[in-house]
Amino acid sequence: METMKPEILKRLYYQMLRIRMVEERIAELYPEQEMRCPVHLCIGQEAVAAGVCANLSRDDYALSNHRSHAHYLAKGGNLKAMIAELYGKVTGCSGGKGGSMHLVDISVGFLGATPIVGSTVAIAVGAALGTVMQDRHQVTAIFFGDATVEEGAFHESANFAALKKLPVIFVCENNLYSVQSPLSVRQPGNREIFEVAKGHGIASYQGDGNDVVQVYQIAKRAINRARKGGGPTFLEFKTYRWREHCGPNDDFNLGYRTESEVRDWQKRCPIKRLKESLLTDGILSNQDIEAMISDLKTEIEAAIVFAKESAFPDKRMLLEHIYAL
Amino acid sequence: METMKPEILKRLYYQMLRIRMVEERIAELYPEQEMRCPVHLCIGQEAVAAGVCANLSRDDYALSNHRSHAHYLAKGGNLKAMIAELYGKVTGCSGGKGGSMHLVDISVGFLGATPIVGSTVAIAVGAALGTVMQDRHQVTAIFFGDATVEEGAFHESANFAALKKLPVIFVCENNLYSVQSPLSVRQPGNREIFEVAKGHGIASYQGDGNDVVQVYQIAKRAINRARKGGGPTFLEFKTYRWREHCGPNDDFNLGYRTESEVRDWQKRCPIKRLKESLLTDGILSNQDIEAMISDLKTEIEAAIVFAKESAFPDKRMLLEHIYAL
Amino acid sequence: MTNRELKFFQAINEAIDQCMARDASVYIMGLGVPDPKGIFGTTLGLQQKYGSKRVMDMPLSENGMTGVAIGSALVGMRPVLTHQRMDFAILSLEEIVNQAAKWHYMFGGQMSVPMVIRMIIGRGWGQGSQHSQSLQAWFAHVPGLKVVMPATPYDAKGLLVASIEDNNPVIFIEHRWLYNITGHVPEETYRVPLGQANIIREGSDITIAATSHMTLEAMHAAAILAKENIRAEVIDIRTLNPLDDSLILESVRKTGHLVVADTGWKTVGFGGEIVARVAEKAFSYLKSPPRRLALPDCPTPTTPALAKHYYPRAVHIVATVRQMLGISADDAVPDEPADVPLDVPDMTFTGPF
Amino acid sequence: MTNRELKFFQAINEAIDQCMARDASVYIMGLGVPDPKGIFGTTLGLQQKYGSKRVMDMPLSENGMTGVAIGSALVGMRPVLTHQRMDFAILSLEEIVNQAAKWHYMFGGQMSVPMVIRMIIGRGWGQGSQHSQSLQAWFAHVPGLKVVMPATPYDAKGLLVASIEDNNPVIFIEHRWLYNITGHVPEETYRVPLGQANIIREGSDITIAATSHMTLEAMHAAAILAKENIRAEVIDIRTLNPLDDSLILESVRKTGHLVVADTGWKTVGFGGEIVARVAEKAFSYLKSPPRRLALPDCPTPTTPALAKHYYPRAVHIVATVRQMLGISADDAVPDEPADVPLDVPDMTFTGPF
Ligand SMILES: Cc1ncc(C[n+]2csc(CCOP(=O)(O)OP(=O)(O)O)c2C)c(N)n1
Ligand SMILES: Cc1ncc(C[n+]2csc(CCOP(=O)(O)OP(=O)(O)O)c2C)c(N)n1
Ligand SMILES: [Mg+2]
Ligand SMILES: [Mg+2]
Questions:
Q1: Of ligand 1's atoms, which has the minimum distance to the CA of residue C31?
Q2: Res. C149: pLDDT tops 70
Q3: Within A30-151, where are the H helices?
Q4: Contacts of C143 in chain B (CB under 8 A)
Q5: Partner residue facing D87 (CB), from B38, B116, B186
Q6: Which residue of chain B comes nearest to D343, CA vs CA?
Q7: Scanning every residue of chain D, which has its alpha carbon at the shortest distance from the alpha carbon of B87?
Q8: Distance C179 CA to ligand 2 centre (A)
Q9: Is ligand 2 within 6 A of the CB of residue B80?
């Protein structure tokens, strides 16, 4: 493993912290019932988005699913437009027509996120095919969860990506659950998820999704390989969702997972973990971090004000955009 | 490998010969245009059906796809009812409503064949689930081709069969083509088909689909394992279709495969191969074989006469059987 | 016990519970079926009672699991497959339409596929374009499928029992905004036969035929119209396939006017079938052009600012009826005051699902 | 060159060829697209001309490959995805309906999905329940999709060029029994605009609106009726979604009678939409109840003995018209003499596909 440049470590930390703070603020505000759409928070899983996207350039592509806030932000998606979208405002990244489950920012190559599980995996593979057909040397990353490999669409996509050696990075965030259903009721216990992808003839690796440095380094190899025409790679990162599947709250009360399981994973918080090493290595000081936090607070509050003050789309927009001209 | 009982070898030979002779007779008669439905012949692939089904008991289940004549016959399906079905007669196994692509014989556990590729794989897994739920110790075999593993339905079925350790035998007849499309334009070259199934955590093996003894022995292990609750097995058998994808003729003229490729595979005819060893081992004599052939001729001609002489379904049957009572 | 009241979701739960108790071949599976939320409460307690073999979670494999359910039905089981949203079931149309709907026919009536596929539809709270579709028109178009849309707790139980006991694939469509509706539900097991519409309010001036949640909107509309001495007859279609149009035809022969209110899109939607049947079979009785109330031909917008203009409600039915009867010149409705949220079924609903 | 004649399949081939020559972003893929049979001849020669990158075979993965086509369209390509049977495309409805149809809308109009999905429908030669479905009603129900069904070689080329150049997902439905029809087709690239029906025979006594192959049956029927001095106006609907009903309404206002002939099932089929529109918008002009000719609500039987009673033909249209105009009491049709095969498009067809 090559040693990490301090600049990169700082950026990774900042990226994760920003995602975390945005998500926590959304969770605080959600009960106001002004964001009237389902939100799937990724608090606890920030390292995967941050570590992978740090290796993507602006004109590389990324797509995602229902849980896309982190991917959108890590890819460089506009924060104001995202918050406004959650508030259903015309200034939102989808003009209010999408909501949290339909984020997009074409200007930074975030091609879109939609919530039908598995469906965007095929679309991402198609985007990669399109770039190759046009001799554009872009890499496409697709983010999805552990349950996504249960969908036929994933396998059809994997087979085609392997067949055509497409520059796609399959990024699986294995957070052990699909809604409230554990892996044990959905997949056989005698094989790992990355082995399923390997069966398709795709280079496949597994990593600690709560160790952003490891994510960064594994992703870097895969992305460089794809860029050089080496074909697709499948990356499985074990991580954990702290909050309820959909919505702002904790959910131990539901009983499908124990509080201690959640607490154990929280001890392995990817942000805390990097913070400690950055402090010990003197790459960041507590003051640096305080400064980061207060800058981020300012940025986030500004985005919220922007969103709240923005107008709702006008009634006549209902019937606009059904067909492209 | 245990040594094979002569009785079993004879039965395997008889079974393959019977399938071959039925198919060749269909090919001869098809140009009369009285069988007015698509027919997918399996001439050259008989060993897989014969070798697998010889290990299934009457109350085990089998399902298949568009190319099901061999599977239906090897499982014990009624020949007269099959030929009558091809002729669209009311005496057909589906009353004429199905044709060659919709064979069924419940009395021998041939639960049905339908031509949407991949679809019956899931249905077979469901049949296996149903038997387990009812504590019935039956094994279900599902026959399909190499292209079928390209369908999402196959992977969803494999995952579920592995998850529930169901008594299913996935039998893949890899004849190298899907219609006129070679494997090379459909699947990556750096992995074998059985390895894809292995990725799902399913015990998977590969064998020579033109060696009926090998098929029999590999299938026997898998079926015994399934019967003992050991779960599913995936079997890939390499074999080859001699005739056109659909219809009675040769198809070198199309140019998607060379005549020499076909000839090479014909040299490896599974029936000729077993015949030679049976003759050298003195298990069968030429006279025995002649007798078999003439008995089969009689049986087949009787089935054809039965089919031709049977009545067509009456007009009012069109609107019958839309809903079950 | 004649005034025993249950909520719609409890009626569904009781129907499944009683069918599982009566028949060991009935089982239920679906994403989250045994989970703590129990599909809006409709499956709560079932796994505790019948075990994890008969009350199953499943992999995220809608298409494959539909095939699995079909296969199990072919060998003697009676699966109840549950989808939290109809949109997800689109992945399984091949198994539903090519296999389940045709298995009985294409094998000459030898086998049948007794299975129920529950699909949930809904509206509101920013579900957006992919989590809100109401595609009953597709299923009603397919011979071999039965399609049921209950609107009351009583029918929810009776139709679901009848569906589970039916020997054909039944698409059972539940509207989320009905789950908290309360109504009379007898405790004993009873059936509401498939293929029968129901007159839930008698009237002589106009016929309003409706599906699912639109039946409630129609009843609200009828109540408003009654104040103006317009007596609307409201027919709950209940079973869309096979469709029994006799009640609707009779009613139109009496009233001479028809409004159809459906939860789906308008064009090539289910409402069009009712209009076409009436135009074909009761043409001479019609005193005004029949009308359809349905979703505009447009995907579902997420923002409440647009969603509130997307869904037809009682006020729209009322305005349409007024226009048809010549009481008002057009069918315009006043925009709702902004402070009334139209994206929740009731004020207890605080999102996110 | 005004009398340049091509077969329908050649017109399709020429449209694809010319679009690929004009625009490097156009590519075509599908099972067997480059194979020696070239999808009934419609793709012959293309791979030789444009190479295997732009004329691709594909894995047997209808759903995934539809997503792939969508993704490629999002980054600048214009895919033409080809399915040898519409029945297979059922596997891809999720990508078509949830993604392709809505991508433009759900992201507020920022992106579009320019793609054509060719789906082949047909009849006859024992294709059976799973290889013969005509599900245009489903696609016409979905906002965001365009649905096209050409009936002549001229329209086949012009509508396909317009579809490939359109910036929306277009479901382009080809009937196998049309492939050998010959007609005038100009060599230069031309477009037939989407969203416009076409009067292909003028008449004043009755309006026959038809889709795809039923347009030919309607023309045969009109010719037979003409001998009885019944002047039928035949309208080829051509584009089912978005549906332009103006020509049909105009025609019915003139004739007062409507027959709709569609290749799909009757109930909740496309014909019902036409009937409903006319009932809503031209009610007062109708002199008789509108009628639908469509497939009975029944899966497709394989045996020719039943298939010959399954498909409506010109004789059925004629009988229906006669009854509507009061010329005969019922719409009964004589059974065809057994020696006329009704399961082949023409005598050159000898099976199996
Ligand atoms: C095809 C489909 N089926 C069901 C759902 C409902 N659903 C929404 S999110 C989700 C969980 C997906 O789990 P996973 O892929 O592990 O992602 P995670 O939510 O854990 O990030 C499910 C089942 C859906 N959105 N799409
Ligand atoms: C879902 C689906 N797509 C396409 C087809 C058309 N089709 C019929 S048979 C066949 C070839 C399947 O190849 P394989 O699975 O290898 O079986 P084989 O014909 O070689 O025995 C195809 C593509 C189909 N029947 N079903
Ligand atoms: Mg997960
Ligand atoms: Mg093959």
A1: 23
A2: yes
A3: 46-53, 69-74, 79-86, 119-133
A4: 322
A5: B116
A6: B36
A7: D303
A8: 44
A9: no
Tokens of D193: 């605009």
Q: Looking at residue B3, what is its pLDDT?
A: 86
Calculate the alpha carbon distances from A5 to A10, A58, D151, D255 in Å: 9, 20, 66, 81
**pLDDT for position C339:** 65
C-alpha B38 – ligand 2 centre gap (Å): 13
| 3-state SS record for A105-135 | EHHHCEEEECCCCCHHHHHHHHHHHHHHHCC
**Nearest one of D289, D310, D351, D292 to D125, comparing CA atoms:** D351
Instruction: Grade residue C124 by pLDDT with cuts at 50, 70 and 90.
Output: confident
How crowded is the C-beta side of B300, counted as CA atoms within 13 Å? 19
Cβ–ligand 2 distance for D31 under 6 Å, the answer: yes
CA dihedral B253, B254, B258, B262 (to 10 degrees): -80
Higher-confidence residue: C349 or C285? C285
C-alpha C162/C-alpha C167 separation (Å) is: 10
- Sorted by sequence, the CB contacts under 8 Å of residue D224 that are 6+ apart come out as D314, D315, D318
* Omega prior to C352 cis, within 30 of 0: yes
Query: Are the C-beta atoms of B61 and B124 separated by less than 8 Å?
Result: yes
Using a CB–CB cutoff of 8 Å, tell me whether A318 touches chain D.
no
pLDDT digits (tens, 9 = 90+) for B121-163: 999 999 999 999 999 999 999 999 999 999 999 999 999 999 9
**Are the C-beta atoms of B234 and B202 separated by less than 8 Å?**
yes
Q: Is the peptide bond before D352 cis (omega within 30 degrees of 0)?
A: yes
Q: In what order do the strands lie in the sheet with A233-238?
A: A110-113, A61-64, A140-145, A168-174, A233-238, A203-208
Single-letter residue type at D64: G
Which residue's structure tokens are 């992305």? A223
What is the complex's ipTM, to 2 decimals? 0.98
Query: What are the start-end ranges of the E strands in C139-190?
Result: 146-148, 169-175, 182-184
Q: What 8-state DSSP symbol labels residue A312?
A: P
Pick from A299, A306, A308: nearest CA to A22: A299
Give the mean pLDDT of D187-216.
Answer: 98
CB contact under 8 A, A315 and C59: no
- Both tokens of A181, joined, read 């259903």
Model's pTM, two decimal places? 0.98
Q: What is the distance in A from the centroid of ligand 3 to the CA of C86?
A: 21
Q: Return the residue matching tokens 């994403």.
A: C31
Confirm whether C175 is a catalytic residue: no
How high does pLDDT run on average in chain C? 96
β-pair type (C182-184, C5-7): antiparallel
Q: Which of D70, D51, D293 is nearest to D168 (CA)?
A: D70
